[in-house]
Amino acid sequence: MKRQMIRPLLVLLTVTATPAAAQEALDGEGGEGVSGFIALGPGVTPAYDGAKSYQLIPFGIADVRWKGMEFELRGLRARLDVMGDSPLQVGPAINLRFKRNSSKDGDGRVKLLDDVGQAIEVGGFVGYRFGGDEKGQGEVTVDLTVLKDVNNGHDGVVATAQLSYAAYRSRRVFVNVDAQTNYGDGKYMRSYFGVTADESLRSGLATYRPGGGIRDVGAGATVGYQFSPRWGLIARAGANYYVGDAKDSPIVDEGSKLQAIAGLALSFRF
Predict the structure, then answer these.
(1) Cα end-to-end span (Å), the chain
(2) What is d(CA 59, CA 21) in angstroms, rounded to the nearest whole number?
(3) C-alpha distances out from residue 2 to 103, 114, 235, Å
(4) How many percent of the chain have pLDDT more than 90?
(5) Within-domain flag for 145
(6) What is the count of structural domains for the chain?
(7) What confidence tens digit (pLDDT) does each residue in 25-44 have?
(8) Which residues form the signal peptide (predicted)?
């Protein structure tokens, strides 16, 4: 199985550690200069949407704050919060989704299906934070991200709604829990979960044409430990379960309805 250099972890949870998961746990250095953190390490994720096989990937997240704005990176999804420290979060977002190389990564008869091209998804997000004490413990964040593929990968629209909760905060440790659901329109769903007549003849899988709708529901947890003023560890685990037309896809029948992710990263604060 081919190992791709990076794949987005948040899309399965989406994606990925929850927004501002690490920065909320630490006492911010503030000021007018650049501040934040980066974290890199190994992770595992399904080889493609619906796969039962997994692959080793780099796991990376980052938050960089400057002049009231915050840049967030989760896997291959990036966004810019132009509202800074405001409870309201608004800004542009982009995500890179690598191609499905069916012949190399596919499970069972999926190997005989067409590849799905690389997608570049652009759009925006809006969110709101409320509650929490002076350390951020108890804070609740809700956000919605909507993206459109502009690279002729799946040509569709995807959206992620997420709810996250800052369960624990101290100077050294943070724990975030979250729940999310992902939506894909008809073009997206047919690209990753559909089987055309030609593909059916080649593979033996039943012809399948899914419609747009909710793709999955999921939950996860992010835990961080700061063992020095600069260095720490961030661990992430999550799982999503396919529902609706995605669950009923012959591609998922060859793979798995449950999609899990995990990652461990060394973080550096600046």
Answers:
(1) 37
(2) 15
(3) 10, 16, 25
(4) 74
(5) yes
(6) 1
(7) 444 444 568 999 999 999 99
(8) 1-22
